[in-house]
Amino acid sequence: MNKYITINNNQAIDFDTIPLLKYKDFLKVNTTFLNDALNHCVNYYGFHHCGKLRLINCIANDETELIYLTSTEINPNLDVAYNSLTAHNTAFHLFEREISENFGVRYIDHPWLKPMRYPIDNVNNPKMDDYPFYHIKSEEIHEVGVGPIHAGIIEPGHFRFICKGEQILHLEIQLGYQHRGVENLFITKNNLLQRTILAESIAGDTTVGHTTAFANIWESLCECPPNSEIKFARTLALELERIAIHTGDLSAICSDIAYQQGSAVFGRLRTPLINFFQSWCGNRLAKGLIRVGNSNHHFTKELGNSLRKILIDFEKDFEEMIEKFLHHPGSLSRLEKTGVVSYEQALAIGAVGLTARSSDLERDIRVSHPFYNYKKLNHQYEIKHHGDVYSRTQMRREEIRQSLGYIYQMLEDIPAFSNEPTALKNPKPNTFTLSLVEGWRGEICHCAITDKSGDLIHYKIKDPSFHNWMALALSVRKNEISDFPICNKSFNLSYCGFDL
Length: 500
What we know:
The protein has helices at 23-33, 93-103, 182-188, 192-200, 207-221, 228-256, 260-281, 301-326, 329-335, 343-349, 353-357, 365-368, 389-411, 465-475, 484-491, 495-498; strands at 5-7, 12-14, 20-21, 39-49, 52-61, 67-74, 81-82, 106-107, 142-146, 158-164, 167-174, 431-438, 443-450, 456-462.
């Protein structure tokens, strides 16, 4: 029997073709995959199926464009504990913590088996106040708690610092305060528009990224590939979202080190970018722009001319401000060698996106599992080598420049739009599909499974923040506690993307 089956990004297959392995073989196959740095886990989750718990593991190869699928069945109701994949590779730790939390699976050798999200349907019904924080007993050590309530509009999350004087020895991040039940809503809402609007709300700063992933999923299930106009519009929207959020992040980084000129200028530069989404689709966050199989907001030559002018004006002021910012001695003193995440650490935790690429780890779905127009654009990822706040700031500069070039290139050849709506078929029965999208923050992964009637029976979402919160915790070790805000903003991770 085959131990795995391979698929490509956005490919739908018969669910029964995914090999069902004994657990010990499942463990060996998947941990062996991750012995190769070119492989990483894009999703690993469980769902109830035929009276048992079916586990699905999805391992992406970053060289061959293939995704390896394996599965196993276990019975969590029995008094049995399992060997963990995490004991062999740390990158599995959050996936297994979620499986344990949701289904009561016990692991013999998981090194950090703590609650993760505190979902409302948690089998053990734990209380947030009982979270088992790590402690160090010493008269010279003290703890500092921040959150879960923060100033302004920051979402809830608790940060527990263990410090010696001003130096951080350890940071533990407790999330899970928001119980939205997003994945279950994809099952209970059987209207396509409702599901699309739900996808737009997974993470408010990644509307384009997550809605694109959902559209890919549904188009794969319905065997309805997007036409050239839709591919063009979604590619352009993804890169415009990247520019807008990166620019806003640069403003916030400047604010955290009291560089007020940079904060003001980058904040101003973000505004016309998101205002263009308002002109295009009626919403500054691009809600309403992406729809399965169709587009209600065609990208016209007039919009192209308007966007080109906005970007030309943006680029001039951006280049002047970014060069001032990144050559200012005061800025460099705060950014360089602060919040370092090494290549080895990034690889161990399975970091993705900007976080990975800032630490010399080559992870970019636009290259490894390309979709839409990225092959035509000949996308090559940017990479930095030092893993500090300065590298993550430089990455934003380089990716903004790169995205500007892509959009200028695309505006030279705007496809004509068709007035004929696409006729969607019903979703294929007994089908599994997976979509990977490189959002501005990193790798987004959506998975879906249908039953024999073609109805959704499972929907799984993974935001890049799922991988990268641990990178923030590692980055602050041996830093002053006053450096935490700038470290935190250099990642800009999502609470709601994690607390599904």
